[in-house]
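Action item from last meeting closed. Structure (495 res):
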């Protein structure tokens, strides 16, 4: 370490972390990690196979009893040390998020702050876990219900907000006495897993408590889910994969945050500038590659034309380019496959009658920096009906407030949503009728705070992350009864 304020950067991200050891994957595939904007090589790592996954689970299972028995104050102190490391390594972590996932600098700094806030949130989890003593109906019986760790948690996370979406599972899991096997997306092995492993290792986390395996879901996903070791599978990703995970492991606990198709509803009395600002942010922040993104802007017919004009002009003013440049607002799509998917949705929407108001061709050295696209169409066109995960906004007209509610709910998804109105209580009444896990009045669909209930309804998943909900997700009830006096039982001596 060069000095107290500037530690030597982490290095050696060419191996996984299993049981406190640097671990080389056993598969025959070596992965080249690249910057999505210009394909600059960031490192190589050999992927894991199914046996590596089982080795990670064995390491986690071996470490769990001792970690669960560690005093609560010691587990809390770990996160205090990790906070200090996060602060000292802030610039290093931000640079990795810019280079590995194409985040503009402000977005990378925001993700760093979310991870840090998550550490603050879980500091007191070890001492917040509490059980109950219940009266018994049997004479002389005392009923105790202890809240215990689940054991080992398997965690599978995506590339779009890789550090945050991994950390929101592993931090509460570890704080509550569990151990973890984490598989980040292959497009974000460092920011999604290996950086967190280094931070917690430096903070003093014992070997085996956090294990990171790197590999393709198609190769090791089944092994992660069907292993007998984990008690809970935490997954963030597509609805199709989440449904398969639930089917493969029906008797395990699941925390699943799946796809989204966020509606932002603009009622006839809304502040239109405020609504347009929120809509543009929600649709285009991080290139729209956010589960909570504003997929659809549903505007009352009285304000429809004005909202369309405002969104169109704001979108045209956004600057697309290198995420490392301070003036860039729209960076690259993560990979070529995702870019093709987004462009296909746009083409199908236009083919189905949507009007394309703002568009542009991909730019940048790798050709993945797709400019903002704005369409107007009905709720059935592809960019409105399907999750886009790209810099695309579709504006849909509604004839009334009730029609806007029907359109907002006309989707298989139910993650995040928003409604704009000058009448706050009208907004709350509207919000409570939206079939979603989260609805924000006079704000963007993109909200994440560590102490509240984050999660979805319908095809957007099951379970909740954050606050007391995370404590419930990552622990289980254990009924222990004590019979203080002798019972007269059937077939006993005194029967």
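Sequence:
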């Amino acid at each position: 370490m060069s000095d107290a304020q500037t530690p030597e950067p982490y290095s050696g991200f060419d191996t996984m972390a299993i049981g406190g050891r640097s671990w080389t994957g056993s598969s025959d595939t070596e992965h080249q990690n690249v910057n999505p904007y210009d394909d600059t090589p960031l490192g190589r790592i050999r992927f894991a196979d199914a046996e590596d996954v089982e080795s990670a689970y064995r390491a986690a299972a071996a470490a769990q009893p001792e970690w669960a028995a560690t005093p609560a104050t010691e587990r809390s102190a770990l996160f205090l040390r990790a906070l200090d490391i996060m602060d000292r390594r802030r610039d290093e972590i931000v640079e990795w998020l810019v280079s590995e996932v194409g985040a503009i600098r402000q977005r990378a700094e925001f993700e760093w702050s979310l991870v840090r806030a998550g550490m603050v949130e879980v500091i007191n989890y070890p001492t917040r876990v509490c059980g109950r003593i219940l009266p018994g109906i049997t004479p002389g019986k005392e009923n105790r219900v202890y809240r215990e760790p689940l054991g080992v948690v398997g965690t599978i996370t995506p590339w779009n907000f890789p550090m945050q979406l991994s950390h929101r599972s592993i931090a509460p899991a570890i704080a509550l006495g569990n151990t973890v096997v984490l598989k980040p997306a292959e497009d974000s092995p460092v920011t999604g897993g290996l950086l967190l492993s280094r931070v917690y290792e430096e903070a003093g986390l014992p070997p085996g408590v956090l294990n990171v395996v790197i590999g393709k879901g198609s190769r090791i996903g089944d092994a992660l889910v069907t292993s007998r070791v984990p008690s809970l599978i935490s997954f963030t990703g597509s609805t199709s994969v989440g449904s398969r995970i639930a089917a493969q492991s029906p008797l395990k606990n699941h925390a699943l945050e799946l796809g989204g198709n966020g509606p932002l509803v603009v009622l006839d009395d809304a502040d239109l500038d405020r609504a347009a600002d929120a809509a543009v942010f929600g649709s285009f922040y991080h290139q729209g590659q956010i589960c909570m993104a504003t997929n659809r802007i549903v505007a009352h017919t009285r304000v429809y034309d004005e909202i369309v004009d405002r969104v169109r002009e704001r979108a045209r003013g956004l600057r697309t380019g290198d995420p490392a440049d301070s003036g860039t607002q729209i960076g690259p799509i993560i990979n070529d496959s995702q870019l093709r998917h987004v462009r296909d949705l746009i083409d199908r929407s236009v083919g189905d009658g949507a009007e394309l108001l703002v568009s542009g061709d991909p730019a940048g050295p790798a050709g993945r920096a797709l400019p903002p696209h704005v369409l107007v169409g009905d709720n059935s066109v592809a960019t409105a009906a399907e999750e886009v995960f790209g810099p695309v906004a579709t504006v849909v007209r509604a004839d009334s407030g009730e029609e806007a509610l029907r359109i907002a709910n006309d989707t298989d998804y139910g993650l995040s949503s928003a409604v704009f109105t000058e009448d706050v209580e009208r907004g709350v009444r509207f919000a409570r009728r939206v079939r979603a896990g989260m609805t924000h009045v006079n704000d963007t669909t993109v909200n994440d705070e560590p102490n509240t209930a984050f999660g979805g309804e319908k095809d957007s998943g099951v379970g909740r992350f954050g606050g007391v909900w995370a404590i419930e997700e990552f622990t289980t009830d254990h009924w222990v009864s004590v019979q203080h006096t002798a019972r007269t039982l059937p077939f006993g001596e005194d029967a």
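Note appended to the action item: The first strand starts at residue 16 and ends at 18.
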